[in-house]
Automatic annotation (TrEMBL):
Chain residues that bind ATP: 66, 114, 142, 148, 159, 169
Family recorded in the similarity comment: Belongs to the NDK family.
Uppermost EC category: transferase
Protein's gene: NME4
GO MF, one annotated term: ATP binding
InterPro entries: NDK-like_dom, NDK-like_dom_sf, Nucleoside_diP_kinase, Nucleoside_diP_kinase_AS
PANTHER family according to UniProt: NUCLEOSIDE DIPHOSPHATE KINASE
Keywords from the UniProt entry: ATP-binding, Cell projection, Kinase, Magnesium, Metal-binding, Nucleotide metabolism, Nucleotide-binding, Transferase
Gene Ontology cellular component terms for the protein in this record: cell projection; mitochondrial intermembrane space; mitochondrial matrix
HAMAP family named in the record: NDP_kinase
Source organism per UniProt: Salmo trutta
Annotated EC: 2.7.4.6
Annotated active site: 172
Domain Nucleoside diphosphate kinase-like: 58-195
Entry protein name: Nucleoside diphosphate kinase
Amino acid sequence: MVLFQRCALKNLILPSPYCRGWGVLPVSKSYITEFAFFLLLGHRCTGYSTISGIPGVRERTLIAVKPDGVQRRLVGQIMQRFEQKGFKLVGMKMLQASEELLSQHYQELRRKPFYPSLLYYMTSGPIVVMVWEGHNVVRTSRIIVGDTNPSEAQAGTVRGDFSIHISRNVVHASDSVEGAQREIQLWFHQKELMDWDCYNHNSTYEL
Ligand code: UDP
Ligand code: MG
């Protein structure tokens, strides 16, 4: 009932899925018709509620286009992989990462022999960091990104398609749900992340 009320209110204010985010609209005849439809058929006839029966639908992961990816103008193609899959972008920014931030990000790798060259690489130019949201997004993103070593990465993955050597593998993806939460907090302030409703949410998920 609470869900019903929330949807009813939401859809009276923003009656068409295509109008989400435009603010309060005048209630015209067609909106009233649509609202009447909503009352008859319930929430399935209109947009979506952020309350969903699918577990983990709000899971988030950190994806970063590394300096080589930015220099090679691959940002758009990498983002497209996540958009076409159906994940939702909830945060994005371009920045020059500091060594301090990277040492926290790569805290488990500090003792590895390649760590100094990893720092040099990651500070060699701007990176684009993003937060993507959706069911199983952490695990699925690792599949989209491919093996750490591009020579092992499958064709069709980002690393498989766009890189050759492990030292220049174009993209970062969190490797666990807990790791993703830690990394997102490290790279983003809460206010930089957007909660927004996809108008086609119920074409992607069963409600
Ligand atoms: N890396 C490297 N040489 C190695 C292993 C890793 O340069 O032998 C770099 C590479 O850029 C990799 C990053 O360190 O993406 C982080 O390593 P991790 O094992 O966490 O791989 P990832 O999670 O990125 O697949
Ligand atoms: Mg890793």
